[in-house]
């Protein structure tokens, strides 16, 4: 089990699960990531003022709740938390290095794509609100990982092995509520842009699946995903909430 790496995973706690626990994690994740998230988390294009879900306290409460579900489901199935990627150990140098390098690259991408937003937020006196939106979107990035790379991928790893886990996890990440509506919209407007969008989501899904498998640490994946979502989406939603800026 050495996908894209000559080194074995740091640990393989998912292997300790029985099949009942694994299926319960997959089913719970599918319920969370398909019908529930479809309702409570509109696509970014639809998350605009006037939408009942466009509410900062509500967004923080929902995203926090989804993270708590990630902790509650393993406890209810009596699955040990390390099995779903919550390590009870010190992080290795490899993990800290991945956090520093990948996080640094993400910050560069954020500055390139959304760096101009934050001076506008500062100039408008909206920094406090902006940081709260960034926090809510950081949590959103985190619970994408706890759902997809935590519960769902953990179950697939135990049931079907890493190849199917990578494939199924990434496919649902692409066509589910997180990215599916945006992809359909782009196909209608600009097929070339839609293809680029799909490739980006697939690369992201495979990369984070590999990172989860390599480190057995979903918390690392969650923080990295949260960084880019927090600063990009958070700044965009702040400006939407205050359209005069």
Uncertain segments of ≥5 residues (pLDDT<50)? 1-6
Write the element-wise H/E pattern from the N-terminal end onward: HHHHHHHHH
Total count of strands = 0
Give the fraction of residues assigned to helices.
over 70%
The main β sheet shows up as: none
Percent of residues in beta strands = under 5%
- Structural class by secondary-structure content: mainly alpha
Mean pLDDT: 90
- Gross morphology is globular
Q: N-to-C terminal Cα separation, in Å?
A: 51 Å
Number of helices: 9
Rg of Cα set: 18 Å
Tell me what you see in this structure.
With 245 residues, the protein is mainly alpha-helical. The protein is built from nine helices and no strands. Helix 6 packs antiparallel against helix 8.
């Amino acid at each position: 089990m050495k996908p894209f790496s000559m080194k074995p995973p740091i640990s393989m706690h998912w292997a300790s699960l029985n099949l009942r626990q694994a299926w319960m994690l997959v089913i719970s994740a599918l319920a969370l990531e398909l019908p529930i998230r479809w309702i409570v988390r509109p696509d970014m294009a639809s998350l605009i003022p006037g939408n009942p879900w466009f509410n900062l306290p509500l967004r923080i409460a929902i995203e926090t709740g989804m993270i708590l579900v990630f902790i509650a489901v393993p406890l209810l199935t009596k699955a040990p938390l390390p099995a779903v990627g919550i390590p009870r150990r010190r992080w290795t140098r490899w993990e800290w290095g991945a956090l520093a390098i990948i996080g640094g690259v993400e910050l560069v991408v954020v500055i390139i794509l959304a760096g101009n937003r934050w001076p506008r937020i500062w100039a408008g006196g909206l920094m406090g609100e902006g940081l709260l939106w960034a926090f809510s979107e950081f949590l959103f990035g985190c619970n994408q990982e706890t759902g997809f790379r935590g519960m769902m991928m953990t179950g697939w790893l135990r049931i079907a092995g890493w190849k199917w886990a990578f494939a199924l996890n990434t496919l649902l990440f692409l066509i589910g509520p997180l990215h599916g509506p945006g992809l359909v919209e782009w196909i209608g407007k600009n097929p070339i842009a839609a293809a680029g969008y799909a490739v980006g989501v697939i690369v992201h899904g495979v990369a984070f699946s590999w990172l989860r498998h390599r480190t057995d640490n979903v918390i690392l994946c969650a923080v990295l995903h949260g960084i880019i979502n927090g600063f990009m989406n958070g700044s965009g939603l702040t400006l939407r909430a205050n359209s005069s800026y």
